[in-house]
Structure formats: C-alpha cells, structure tokens
Amino acid sequence: MEKAKIRLVNLNDAERILQIYRPYVENTAITFEYTVPTLEEFKNRIASIVKKYPYIVAEIDGKIMGYAYANTFKNREAYDWSVETSIYVDENSRGKGLGLQLYRALENLLKKQGILNVNACITNPSKESKYVTKGSILFHEKLGYRHVGTFHNSGYKFDEWFDMSWMEKSLGEHNLKPGKVIEISKLLEKFTFEELMS
Fold first, then answer.
1. Residue 75 backbone dihedrals phi, psi, to 5 degrees
2. How far, CA to CA in Å, does 42 sit from each of 72, 118, 122, 144?
3. Residue 42 CB-half CA count within 13 A
4. First vs last Cα of the chain: how many Å apart?
5. What superfamily does domain 5-197 belong to in CATH?
6. pLDDT of 83 above 90
7. pLDDT (0 to 100) of residue 1
8. Which of 2, 23, 115, 171 has its Cβ near the most Cβ atoms within 10 Å?
9. What pLDDT does 97 receive?
10. What's the mean per-residue pLDDT of the chain?
11. What 3-state DSSP class applies to 147?
12. Distance CA 96, CA 29 (A)
C-alpha cells in the first residue's frame, strides 16, 4: 500500500477534485448525478461541508489522488450524531489502499467530533452492469460496515435501474447522555490537523 499524505481540503483543490469526480458522473452509476457540477458549484459544496464536517484529500507525490468527506445525514437535531460519508479515488489509483487510508483518517476525525454513526449510501447493482460493480459494497464490508437496507430500482441512469443500499458503522458507545457534536471548524480553532489525527 502506497502511503499518502492526508490533509484537509482547501478551495484551491476544487479543480483537481472535480477532475477525479467527473468520470464517476459521466461513466458510472456510482453517483446518481447526471451532469458534472460547475467548478463554482463544486467550490460551494466544499465550503458548505467544511463548516461542520471533515473534508480531506490524499496526496501522492504532491498530487491529489482521492478525497473523502462527511455530510449531514438528515437535517433534524436528533440525527446530529450521524453522518453520511462519501469517497472518490482517481481511476488510476483504485485498489491500491488509498480509500482505506482516507476512510481511516475520516473516521478518526469524526470520532474527535463526537460522531457515533457513519452511514454510506451505495449503488448496489441487482444484475451485472458495466456502470457499477459490487466493489464499493465489498470495500465498506472490509471496513466493518454492515448492510442495513436496500431500496430497489431507486436510481435510473444510463437507461438502467439501480438498487441503492445503506450501510452503517458505529464509531462509539450510544450513551443516554451523548456529548454534543463539535463542528470541525471549532476543533481546528483549538487543535492542529496533525494533533486531531494523532
């Protein structure tokens, strides 16, 4: 496994990250977006996420080769301890352990925030398709996620219907008095990124 440098995203990374995301939109059913976002829209997405949650990139030899982030699971206070995760790796770097490094770093940061539940929404092909495999399901299983439900024929792309599965992982104890979740921006006012990663 090639060791990557993991760091926080900045808005200057948006163009490279969008390059990584583009083929997933144009050539796969891994994302259900039909149209590649504009650079401005992508920057706005990043800026919105980093106020509350971690958004990290993985560099190899100074070039971003993957990224991962957490975002709101449901916009109600009772869901504060739950997030939805996303990860994308450059097509030429898949299967080399980069996703594993990104997810471990992301989960570490989420624990520091007080997040207890991580959820992943994953395209799950019910039949063989050239647009998606079971790879993401298997990747999450390897990381300790468990399958909790499937919505059948819920996504339509490339003239095919795709199932969508939810997988979950618990990051901590579910006490009757859980601590308040701390926004990542607030944590970074007190600690460096390196301190949060330790």
1. -85, 60
2. 17, 23, 21, 30
3. 20
4. 20
5. Gcn5-related N-acetyltransferase (GNAT) (3.40.630.30)
6. yes
7. 64
8. 115
9. 86
10. 95
11. strand
12. 21
Residue 127 CB partners (closer than 8 Å, separation 6+): none
Q: In the prediction, which pLDDT does 198 show?
A: 84
Residues 151, 134, 141, 176: what is their CA dihedral angle, to the nearest 10 degrees? -20
What's the number of CA atoms in the CB half-sphere (13 Å) around residue 95? 3
What are the structural domain ranges in the chain? 5-197
Distance separating alpha carbons of residues 123 and 135, to the nearest angstrom: 10
Side chain identity at residue 166, one-letter code:
W
- What lies within 8 Å, CB to CB, of 180 at 6+ separation is 80, 114
pTM over 0.85: yes
Cβ(53)–Cβ(71) under 8 Å?
yes
Contact between 128 and 98 under an 8 Å Cβ cutoff? The reply is: no
Cα dihedral across residues 158, 97, 172, 83: positive or negative: negative
| Single-letter amino acid code for the residue at 43 | K
User: DSSP per residue over 35-97, as a string?
Assistant: SPPPHHHHHHHHHHHTTTS-EEEEEETTEEEEEEEEEESSSSGGGTTEEEEEEEE-GGGTTSS
